[in-house]
């Protein structure tokens, strides 16, 4: 996220951050589905119109929370790039950290997915990503440099392919957020992906 440059932008960013922090506290206390937009506005001490100008839905707030959480853990995840082991083990660690995050945020992640899908269907929708794709691309680039991953396809393209597989699995969260099943499915798609991504 770029640093706000004007007083007005800084004020808007401060309001945005306060709304997200307030909503996070309410979601943690009462559960995502039990909290209304009206409660968030009241707790953040902002007018409902102000709240809706920042976030049209609770799912949009969830998306902002997910992006902020992943951004905060990005330095740790980037450490996977040069961690001991193989590209396969690094990808397994990255996906396992995703499952553990979903376990801690079973109400939040489905809301994030709903927001992502709704925005994909809108021409001027929110196209901001969580940062997961950037980290995934770097892990694959390192694998290419080490000769573990085929290099006739760009790391960006491979990352996009793997993200689509990842997204397909995480859709399970919309109806059945079972971490054990997610972990099993992630292991399956990683095996499938790495077999096709082997050096040739």
> Helix content range of the residues, please?
55-70%
CATH topology of the largest domain: Tetracycline Repressor, domain 2
Number of helices: 9
Strand content of the residues, in percent? under 5%
CATH class of the largest domain: Mainly Alpha
Report Rg. 19 Å
Shape: elongated
* CATH H-level superfamily title of the largest domain: Tetracycline Repressor, domain 2
Largest sheet: none
- Which runs of at least 5 residues are low in confidence (pLDDT < 50)? none
Please report the distance between the alpha carbons of the first and last residues: 38 Å
CATH architecture of the largest domain: Orthogonal Bundle
Number of strands: 0
On the 0-100 scale, what is the average pLDDT? 85
How many domains is the backbone divided into? Answer: 2
Summing up helix and strand content along with how strands pair, one would put the structural category as mainly alpha
What pattern of helices and strands is seen along the backbone?
A: HHHHHHHHH
Organism: Novispirillum itersonii (Aquaspirillum itersonii)
InterPro entries: Homeodomain-like_sf, HTH-type_TetR-like_transc_reg, HTH_TetR, Tet_transcr_reg_TetR-rel_C_sf
DNA-binding region: 36-55
Pfam family, one: TetR_N
